[in-house]
Amino acid sequence: xxxxxxxxxxxxxxxxxxxxxxxxxxxxxxxxxxxxxxxxxxxxxxxxxxxxxxxxxxxxxxxxxxxxxxxxxxxxxxxxxxxxxxxxxxxxxxxxxxxxxxxxxxxxxxxxxxxxxxxxxxxxxxxxxxxxxxxxxxxxxxxxxxxxxxxxxxxxxx
Length: 158
Hints:
By secondary structure, this protein is mainly alpha-helical.
């Protein structure tokens, strides 16, 4: 099985979404042809990728769309950057189409959330210690933490 043997219709009709990141392989021969591609061929690629992006959005149910779409597009960018590495205009065009939406990987979102929560806990813990040592008041600690004194007392367990 070769990814370039499957058309866009095949990929979507047969639910072979795992092949989407490798779709750019359809154009590999044209890219390596002596003289490269002309403007019409480049435009055809961009139209094709625009349709691919639209079909991905249509195909995926809203609940799964964000994570699956993000992961597929992220993988596709990696493959595309390799395949189109010698044609900056096509690479930028495809990136613009597939990256037209600012998506983050779900795992990146969770990591960022965890990091922010950890930083906030560390900050509150430090402020709590300063309050316990009498260096600052609860009101000062709450203000520095960006919360009310009541919320700080509750979170810091004071």
